[in-house]
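Chain particulars:
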Amino acid sequence: MNPRQLFLLLPVLFLWSCSTGVDLPSGTSRGYSSVRLSDKAPHIDTPDRYKQGQKWARQNIRDLCQQKGLQVSEDSAQLEISRLVLIQDNSTTMALREYFTGGLEADAMEDLAHQRGVVQSKEVEQFNRAGLVIDVREINSGDLVYRNYVKRDILPEGTPLEVRQRLVQEAVIEALGPFFS
């Protein structure tokens, strides 16, 4: 490669290296009337505590869609909403992929979360947090219309049920709410 070619390639390499590798499209619900929720059986190794949080997230997504005028239907929906939960502490990041239809994108998001939250973290105190990623895809084309995420600290095991439910609801509204703007 001659110096001129290398010089022309440098801006491309710079932009590529700055990219997160994770798309965050910000489409809206305008023009759509129906949605289905991604549903699979929970993985056998998923702790019960996280299974309960997934149930609450699903119900909150369903409720929000219905409140905003989208019919929730498994048969003839235009959109599919899926969710990815990332669990993280000071040394590890784990993805709960059971309800996520983004395929290999889950790996990229898990890697990015681990790099930013663990490897590059300057936190010295022990932490436990969860991230919720919500994807909205057109069913016919498979195009990603919307993606957003939110992260929160994981509450201790003895936290009252109603507090945990409320925090899951708030996370869903924060992650999915802009889709209805």
